[in-house]
């Protein structure tokens, strides 16, 4: 289906009982690849089963086009990762999906009564407000002290409930933000670069936790990252954004996509390698993905077994 | 303190301090000191209109503070002129118009000072009714929006993404602020009203660990300042409102001192 923004298809394929919203659904493994990043035609139907479904989002600010006809769906139980270079519009897209910003054109449909857990990219510590960690988490949902303490321990931030929010380190703050998102028992967890300031070991731990909770609770996850190796390991579906959706699909297929190679070419891959300094010697991961158990198979969503 | 005017002054000041404490915390947290100042200065237009039309002054001031709050909500939607510049523009326009209007209404012999700095010893029984009924309404309203206002003061986008009704909450808050400012103007004047809001809250901040504690300490500082300020005023025959503000400043200085000495930001 030429010109079709494919981001919703993996989710669509997983639900055989879903009424056909589109005339054609490809069923071969690399259906997520296509060569038409711009889709200017009439909007396709929203994915009725998705938690959040957006079609043909256009947005400009100060004469600069930030989103160009973006389609995206997030279904229950799947981890969708948004990757793309700086200035690609990742955070803007997240803000539109959350209803924090209105697009110039296009529409976002959220499931009625959708409970959102959100970890924003920037969190300015405001010392004017005296508030401790436990109370901050409680603002997410009026939970009992014990439940909050347990949640904090789950995200690796145990025993800091009494500390002032403004005294936390960057890594601690990220964990506390995650605890606040999770205590809401969200239908969808939206994480905008959630591992900022978290050390390397803690990062893997946090992603494992998110993956584990996703399996247990079945919520959907939208993750923004420019952290390529994490994206490859943790996502069910990757959406590569550069103002438009360049390509999307399971991580292995996206990694082989020419658009992806163009965006995160050998140079970018090296830059990411440097960014991850001594921990990451797999410079070839971005440009030349390593074989992994699922690489040869067709599109399959690990989150839905 | 057996004089009835003194008792009325004390009751008025204490009532005001009680309402101003939690409200002032939000003014401090949301950095709305200059916003409040603008609304308060606009109150002078309300005084002029009230004098010209022989209305209850608190009522006419209330109408104007509500109108200005609505105007500021509208003006806040554009981004070409920064909001604080707009506030400065409005505050000084209001002051200028207010001064001209009060001069024209009552002639130059009118004691403008009483409106700029208030006259707490001239508080009437009707004023007390305004303070306690209006104040109770303001406190109930604040209780109603406390949690959502706190959430969006801590992080507005996060609160909004979680489904906090931000626009409605902020609207209710600015209306409560307009109400309290209108009530306070008669007592402490156009120029000192915001001091009553921000100074107790600022003094309470260094001692507080929770938002509610800050509101509580602010109420205590406010109440003590009213009592001590009135005592000073009577003893040294100094103006009432300014004496209270000086006491508030002293409390703030003492409260912030350890923080400064520790060198903590």
Can you put this structure into words, describing what you see?
The complex is a heterodimer of chains A (305) and B (265). Chain A is of the alpha/beta class. Chain A has two domains: 9-115 and 189-199 and 222-304, 3-Layer(aba) Sandwich (Rossmann fold); 119-185, no CATH class. Chain A is built from eleven helices and nine strands. The longest helix of chain A has 18 residues, at 200-217. The radius of gyration of chain A is 19 Å and the shape is globular. Chain B has a single domain (4-194), classed as ABC transporter involved in vitamin B12 uptake, BtuC (Orthogonal Bundle), CATH 1.10.3470. Helices cover 83% and strands 0% of the residues of chain B. Chain B is globular and about 55 Å long.
Secondary-structure map:
The complex is a heterodimer of chains A (305) and B (265).
Chain A: H1 9-14, E1 52-61, E2 64-74, E3 79-83, H2 90-97, E4 105-110, E5 116-119, H3 133-140, H4 145-154, H5 170-183, E6 188-192, H6 200-217, E7 220-224, H7 228-234, E8 237-242, E9 244-249, H8 251-255, H9 258-263, H10 266-275, H11 284-287
Parallel strand pairs in A: 3-7, 3-8, 5-6, 6-7
Antiparallel strand pairs in A: 1-2, 1-4, 8-9
Helix pairs in contact in A: 3-5, 4-5
Chain B: H1 4-29, H2 33-53, H3 57-75, H4 83-106, H5 112-117, H6 125-154, H7 156-161, H8 166-204, H9 211-236, H10 240-262
Helix pairs in contact in B: 1-6, 1-8, 1-9, 2-3, 2-4, 2-8, 3-8, 6-8, 8-9, 8-10, 9-10
């Amino acid at each position: 289906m030429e010109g079709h923004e494919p981001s919703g298809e993996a989710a669509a394929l997983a639900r055989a009982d879903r009424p056909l919203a589109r005339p054609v659904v490809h069923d071969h493994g690399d259906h997520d690849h296509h060569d038409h990043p711009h889709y200017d035609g009439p909007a396709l139907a929203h994915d009725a089963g998705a938690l959040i479904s957006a079609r043909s989002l256009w947005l400009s600010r100060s004469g600069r086009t930030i989103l160009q006809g973006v389609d995206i769906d997030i279904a229950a139980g799947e981890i969708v990762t948004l990757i793309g270079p700086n200035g690609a519009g990742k955070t803007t897209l997240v803000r539109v999906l959350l209803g924090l910003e209105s697009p110039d054109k296009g529409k976002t449909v959220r499931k009625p009564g959708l409970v959102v857990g959100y970890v924003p990219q920037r969190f300015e510590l405001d010392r004017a407000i005296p508030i401790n960690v436990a109370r901050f988490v409680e603002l997410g949902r009026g939970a009992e002290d014990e439940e909050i303490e347990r949640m904090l321990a789950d995200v690796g931030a145990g025993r800091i409930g009494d500390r002032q929010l403004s005294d936390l380190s960057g890594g601690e703050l990220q964990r506390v933000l995650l605890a606040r998102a999770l205590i809401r028992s969200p239908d969808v967890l939206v994480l905008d670069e959630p591992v900022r300031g978290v050390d390397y070991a803690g990062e893997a731990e946090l992603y494992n936790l998110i993956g584990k909770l996703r399996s247990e609770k079945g919520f959907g996850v939208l993750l923004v990252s420019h952290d390529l190796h994490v994206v490859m390991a943790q996502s069910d579906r990757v959406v590569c954004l550069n103002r438009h959706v360049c390509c999307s699909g399971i991580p292995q297929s996206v990694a082989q996509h020419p658009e992806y190679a163009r965006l995160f070419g050998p140079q970018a891959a090296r830059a990411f390698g440097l960014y991850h300094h001594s921990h990451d010697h797999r410079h070839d991961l971005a440009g030349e993905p390593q074989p992994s158990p699922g690489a040869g198979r067709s599109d399959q969503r690990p989150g839905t077994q | 303190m057996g004089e009835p005017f003194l008792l009325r002054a004390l009751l008025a000041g204490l009532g005001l301090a009680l309402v101003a404490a939690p409200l002032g915390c939000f003014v401090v947290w949301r950095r709305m000191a200059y916003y409040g100042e603008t609304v308060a200065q606009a109150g002078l237009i309300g005084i002029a209109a009230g004098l010209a039309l022989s209305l209850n002054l608190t009522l006419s001031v209330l109408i104007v503070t509500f109108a200005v709050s609505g105007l500021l909500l509208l003006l806040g939607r554009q981004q070409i002129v920064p909001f604080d510049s707009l506030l400065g523009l409005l505050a000084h326009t209001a002051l200028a118009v207010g001064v001209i209007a009060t001069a024209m209404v009552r002639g130059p012999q009118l004691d403008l000072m009483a409106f700029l700095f208030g006259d707490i010893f001239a508080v009437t029984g009707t004023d007390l009714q305004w303070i306690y009924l209006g104040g109770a309404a303001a406190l109930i309203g604040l209780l109603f929006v406390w949690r959502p206002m706190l959430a969006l003061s801590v992080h507005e986008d996060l609160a909004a993404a979680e489904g906090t009704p931000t626009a409605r909450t902020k609207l209710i808050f600015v209306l409560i602020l307009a109400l309290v400012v209108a009530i306070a103007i008669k007592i402490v004047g156009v120029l000192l009203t915001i001091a009553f809001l921000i100074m107790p809250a600022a003094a309470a901040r260094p001692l507080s660990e929770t938002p509610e504690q800050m509101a509580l300490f602010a109420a205590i500082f406010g109440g003590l300042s009213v009592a001590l300020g009135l005592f000073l005023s009577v003893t040294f025959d100094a103006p009432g409102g300014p004496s209270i503000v000086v006491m508030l400043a002293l409390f703030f200085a003492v409260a912030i001192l350890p923080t400064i000495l520790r060198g903590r930001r």
